[in-house]
Write a structure and sequence with these properties.
five-stranded parallel beta sheet; alpha/beta; six-stranded mixed beta sheet
Length: 487
């Protein structure tokens, strides 16, 4: 195994990792971090560094990084803050190429001592050319390498693989200043069958900031959607360059920016020492560069699910066809679509004629399409979705389903997959009942994002349509006009 390529390869894809401060005590972070790492099938080598134990959690421990019998790519530092700078110097002297600092007590403490410690970390990293992430971070997960140098419970004792084995595209990377929020996105998204490439937490970003990481991941090419938790934009020129790269590549950036209220500004400062900046200016920057801004954790995961599965077939406009067995649900969702900036037009006569063949007289084919429960039982969700998607009057389809029981979706799994593959328009599902885990797996494998919030579902479709429009404007701006014929 060799370290990953690119400047950040030794940090994110190391072949050897030293855990400085590793402990046999699983009740504390120094023990849990090593325990989490050993709980995944990482193919590289892990070396505990401990001055008080000859063996830690079944591995031989070394009294120092310098004593490790081979070069170390990454050192994970989880020791008291006052010892971090000197340990970083020792790591540099031993040839360590990157460090992830999980320790807290630096600039976020808002004390002269903490700020001085962080300044020393920055100076050491600069002097030795070492890649340093943190301090005050919660580590990361590289799912392809099965490497999780973190104490987060979200990747501890997982009962499922880090990535759904059937997902080969649409991978999502999380880059977050907040470790808790970053791994919360993984925790909620993995339950939705989302394929994560990375969860990377950056803490105080003393040396390495969010958009340098995004830049590296764009170069690497394994990520299709980015979820960012941002407390401050430290390097505006880099942000603009990287955001423009992502937009041109069609890799959406979905971001939450903290600090829109005085309390939020205080929280960001106390959390990572971040200066939140002017929220209006940040919002304008995001809009200019196609960054999709959200305010809610669940909505963030919903958007990731939509873009992950439908990034190659975004809506050409805001027109939505709604299919449902529940007339009440159809009307309610239609209002939610209107609030999100979508339209729900009456379908064309040809499509309605096809729908009327399967809908009883007490239903409606106009849009929302109230197929009634009887039509769903007889013909299925897949057939209803196929007929609605065929209409030239719409750009996307939202199917209202009851996903509580998986039996009907098991029967329709093949047909659902065929409709998803054949449709040039995105088809998404909103369940008015809480879905079972089996249903989530079945519909995700078939190619459908499944939502439990109608507002979030509508906003996701609107965001996909808006993102496509922004990209098309970008392409039009950079594509020279065709020469007149005969010239």
């Amino acid at each position: 195994m060799t370290a990953g390529t690119g400047r950040l390869g030794p940090l994110l894809s190391p072949r050897t990792v030293a855990v400085v401060g590793a402990s046999p005590d699983l009740r504390i972070f120094r023990g849990r971090t090593l325990q989490v790492m050993l709980g995944h099938p990482y193919a590289g080598r892990i070396y505990p560094v401990s001055r008080s134990h000859a063996e830690v959690q079944g591995l031989r421990a070394y009294p120092s990084v310098a004593a490790i019998p081979e070069p170390v790519d990454l050192a994970v530092l989880i020791i008291p803050a006052e010892f971090v700078p000197d340990e970083l110097e020792r790591c540099a002297a031993a040839g360590v190429r990157a460090a992830m600092i999980l320790s807290s007590g630096f600039a976020e403490a808002a004390t002269p001592a903490g700020e001085q410690l962080e300044a020393r970390v920055v100076a050491i990293a600069g002097r030795h050319g070492m890649i340093v992430c943190g301090p005050n971070a919660e580590g990361y997960a590289n799912t392809a390498a099965a490497l999780c140098p973190t104490f987060s419970p979200a990747v501890h004792h997982l009962s499922v693989p880090l990535v759904p084995p059937w997902r080969t595209r649409g991978h999502v990377a999380v880059v977050a200043q907040s470790g808790g929020m970053g791994f919360a996105m993984f925790d909620r998204g993995r339950a939705r069958e989302l394929p994560f490439s990375y969860v990377i937490t950056t803490g105080n970003e003393a040396c390495l900031e969010t958009f340098e990481i995004v830049d590296h991941l764009l170069d690497e090419g394994r990520t299709d959607v980015f979820l960012l938790y941002v407390e401050t934009i430290r390097d505006r020129p880099r942000f603009e360059r990287v955001a423009a790269r992502a937009l041109a590549a069609g890799k959406p950036i979905i971001a939450v920016k903290i600090g829109k209220t005085p309390a939020g500004v205080r929280a960001a400062r106390a959390h990572t020492g971040a200066i939140a900046g002017d929220p209006a200016e940040c919002q304008a920057l995001f809009r200019r560069h196609g960054v999709v801004e959200v305010d809610d954790l669940d909505e963030m995961v919903d958007l990731a699910a939509a873009f992950s599965l439908h990034g190659d077939r975004l809506p050409a406009g805001p027109r939505v066809g709604i299919g449902s067995a529940s007339g009440g649900g159809g009307g309610w969702l239609a209002d939610a679509c209107g609030a999100a900036g979508l339209t729900v037009p009456i379908l064309d006569a040809a499509t309605r004629a096809e729908l009327d063949k399967m809908i009883p007289s007490y239903g409606s084919s106009q849009n929302p399409v109230d197929a009634t429960a009887q039509a769903i039982v007889q013909s299925g969700y897949a057939e209803l979705a196929r007929r609605i998607a065929a209409s030239d009057a719409i750009d996307a389809v939202i199917m209202i389903v009851s996903a509580r029981i998986s039996a009907s979706f098991e029967r329709e799994q093949h047909d659902l997959a065929e409709v998803a593959r054949a449709s040039a328009k995105p088809i998404v599902l909103w369940s008015y009942t809480l879905p079972s885990a089996d249903t989530v797996r079945i519909v995700s494998q078939a190619g459908y994002p499944l939502f439990t919030s109608m507002q979030s579902c509508a906003r996701a479709v609107a965001a996909m349509a808006h993102y496509r429009a922004v990209r098309e404007r970008l392409r039009a701006a950079v594509t020279p006009p065709s020469a007149p014929s005969g010239s």
